[in-house]
Amino acid sequence: MTVTIKNIEDAAKRIHPYIKRTPVLTCSTLNRITQATLFFKCENFQKAGAFKFRGACNAVFSLSDSEARRGVATHSSGNHAQALALAAKTRGIKAYIVMPSNSAQVKKQAVADYGAAITFCEPGLAAREAALNKVIEETGAVLIHPYDNEQVISGQGTAALEFLDECHDIDIMIAPIGGGGLIAGTAIAVKALSPTTQVIGAEPERVNDAYLSFKKGERVPAPNQHTICDGLLTSVGKITFPIILEKVNDIYTASEQTILNALRYIWERMKIVVEPSAAVTLAIILANPDMFKGKRIGLILSGGNVDIKAIAELL
């Protein structure tokens, strides 16, 4: 299956009864600071606290009844885990989630609250995949990959679909990049419905695998470094990367301090709680002001699942 705008439109109809249509907010102070006109798609207000619920919901409700009876499984540090747990609960099926032991406590608690069976593993992709394979072998559950899944990508693209229905004449659309599900779905939707709009990915400097992969034209593994953007630690996927190469115009990175500055601006000036992985979209504008000056820009604020105490200490 090649993901198309029709898949995204079908996903929008499928998940409409279950998701929230999130608001688009503006901020005159941030427009003044950046000298641009910014429109923020607030997926921090989405169910389960992030855009991930769109993709998880589409994947879960695309399963046949016989597949659904087996339950679903995935590995995730937090947002996809919460999203899949809630989507499974909504359909009335089991969810088995593998989480790294160093996942944020707020995300662990939310996954448990949604009723999923959690298996903790050591941090790192190899440990996560090994633990997940064992869970699937034992339970027979259907794998719902966090980003390398066409139904997930289609679901994530519905955020951009809603945005473009509401906001017109957008010069640039910015989305964060971790595994690439959101930016891939966004790019497919934007290039189909607003072909002149540029699609730009945002990534932390410390975990810049998508940036390096994009420039090289082949996938480069994510460096094993810490970033406050815990939702963006994974490498771009096998399915998402070709879409990114074809449809994304460019990728920019921002330093940890610039991401923290962006986070503070959003919390203090917009009075909303987002996580650092969402604030990276504003951070790349702050880091590259001349590139974005005078433009009408859509930013997807990907989520709001944050450990308040940990972020307060950093700020």
TrEMBL record:
Stored SUPFAM superfamilies: Tryptophan synthase beta subunit-like PLP-dependent enzymes
Cofactor(s) essential for the protein: pyridoxal 5'-phosphate
UniProt keywords, alphabetically: Lyase, Pyridoxal phosphate
Gene3D superfamilies (UniProt xref): 3.40.50.1100
Keyword field contains Lyase: yes
Highest taxon, organism lineage: Bacteria
Pfam short name (any one): PALP
Molecular function GO labels: ATP binding; L-serine ammonia-lyase activity; magnesium ion binding; pyridoxal phosphate binding; serine racemase activity; threonine racemase activity
Keyword Electron transport: no
Biological-process GO terms, alphabetical: D-serine biosynthetic process
Domain spans labelled Tryptophan synthase beta chain-like PALP: 17-303
Similarity-based family: Belongs to the serine/threonine dehydratase family.
Protein name per the record: Threonine dehydratase
Species of origin: Aquicella lusitana
